[in-house]
Amino acid sequence: MIERYSTPEMVAVWTEEAKMTTWLEVELAVCEAWAELGEVPDEALADIRERAAFDVERVKEIEETTHHDVIAFLTNVAEHVGDASKYIHFGMTSSDMLDTALAVQLRRAGGILAEETRILGRVLQQRALEHRDTVMIGRSHGVHAEPITFGMVLGLWAFEVHRGLERLERATEQVAVGKISGAVGTYANIDPRVEEMATDILEIGRVPLSTQVVQRDRHAEFMSSLAILATTLEKMAVQIRHFQRTEVLEAEEYFSPGQKGSSAMPHKRNPIISERLSGQARVIRGNLTAALENIPLWHERDISHSSVERIILPDSTILLHYMLRKAVWLVDRLVVYPENMAENMGKSHGLVFSQRVLLELVRSGLLREEAYRLVQRNAMHAWEEGEPFQEVLAGDEEVAGHLTTEQLDDCFDPSYHLRRLPIIFERIEGLSW
User: Fold this and answer.
1) Residue from 141, 263, 299, 432 carrying the catalytic annotation
2) Cα(129)–Cα(226) distance, rounded to whole angstroms?
3) pTM to 2 decimals?
4) pLDDT by residue (tens digit) across 242-285?
5) Residues in Cβ contact with 272 at an 8 Å cutoff, skipping those fewer than 6 apart
6) 141 annotated active-site
7) Residue among 94, 181, 210, 262 flagged as catalytic
8) Is 262 a catalytic residue?
9) CATH architecture of the domain with residue range 351-411
């Protein structure tokens, strides 16, 4: 597990103690089901309930001999329970316990991630509404396009995080399913009602058909939801890194008192959290590749997926939880510079209003191709000579023949581009977390 980036709530899902506790929950649930069906005597069930326990170190000691973790665990539980232990694991195969317990763990992990995602969504929504009227330049291909507001940028992220939350919740539901159907899924030695009752006790779903294992497309879907959400965080981080560039400086990460940016250059204020998120997203995407490769197992099962999942599922959920918390901190404390946004918008000499001029020329009766030629000719001149675009247009006789001075002035009014923002922000405000 990635201890350096751990968060206590998520780590608690994946400790050896937590894993074996969940194993025991599964075994007890199956015993309860068998007892309901009359296979386990009441007094034996009472003994199992009272005495069932394990010791992690003892299990590891036994495993040194058995080289089988489930058998080692069951042996240790039997040491605590005594004679009634003969009813534990009755009719089951190892994967009945392992995959069902993993489903319980993933349901818990998915719930923790969903709650942190909601927190991030609410912070993005709040800051989007805060900056609904903070005008800045929109960029396409990294080049000035037309005016937007910073609230739109944050709102866009909020909607994407909301989709990530929905995707995560759907994937958690898909992966939080157990199977207790025996060695190759035929229920040969276990009543199908046991599976139904035990999974109900554990509050998870159940598969309609399995082999010895739950099929790994479910786990790949879960990992995919983590990878997409992590990549959304990276998308936000990359844009913040651009905003923080010295030549741009429209927003930057909060720089706390006493913080240092460089061992050599005392002036540095670096976007370290954003860069960290960018790097960590790569790890989770890499783990998704491993999850996809776990899908094609041999026949009714092999064990090649097991060693992979012991790494990628704890590491990815722990790491994403950390990333979500850092993203909340990053957005909540993000420093925004509206004055720099206004100054940057002016650096393209008014060229950002070119489409408005184009459309007004078309309305005046020109063909679009002719209007485009006129606007582009003047735009290139303004850019290359560093002259105000509006003045260049006003000095063009062809343009003056179609647009009055007042019409040209209207074309350079930023409020025109933002007049329909209330519709957008009504949608942002309507997001429910």
Assistant:
1) 141
2) 27
3) 0.93
4) 999 999 999 999 988 888 887 888 888 999 999 999 999 999 99
5) 253, 261
6) yes
7) 262
8) yes
9) Orthogonal Bundle (1.10)
